[in-house]
Amino acid sequence: xxxILASGSPRRKELMEMLGFKDMEIIPAKGxxxxxxxxxxxxxxEALAAQKASEVAERRNKDELVIGADTVVFHNGKVMGKPHxxxxxxxxxxxxxxxxxxxxTGVCLIRDGRMTAKHExxxxxxxxxxxxxxxxxxxxxxxxxxxxxxxxxxLGALLVKGIEGDFFNVMGLPVCMLxxxxxxxxxxxx
Length: 190
Known about the structure:
The chain is an alpha/beta fold. The chain contains six helices and seven strands; from the N terminus they run E-H-E-H-E-E-H-E-E-H-E-H-H.
């Protein structure tokens, strides 16, 4: 069975390759994400993952397995996506400094016209950051393509005191949950 990752995220690609999917096809969804601000974070990421997977699945053979995913950071009742500017990245990091936030990732699988969507949530504890540390981190450019303006798998690891839950979820793809979802589709990784 052919597996298609409906994401251009290099981190998701790395995680899929770590699981042994070296010959998957990568076809990033190109449509504009339709965000419904009334949705709870868990429902939002499932809906966004389904949008991505559906867009790609519409153009593919029904027997191919399409995987879509989306990640957001949730803090103080607000969803934080990817920053659109260095100032926005700086503001996000200042809000997360010294606090605990939640990272939600939705995963959607589509095959043979059947869709399954689930989500994972992890809690991330940030240490207290100085203004100089925030500015220096933003200047690296790493925050600019990541929900919440940090990457726990890169220099952003220096900001994170601890994680409750799936570390890979914080990277953008909860591999344990994905493994269970794939198993339900007849794809056994182990």
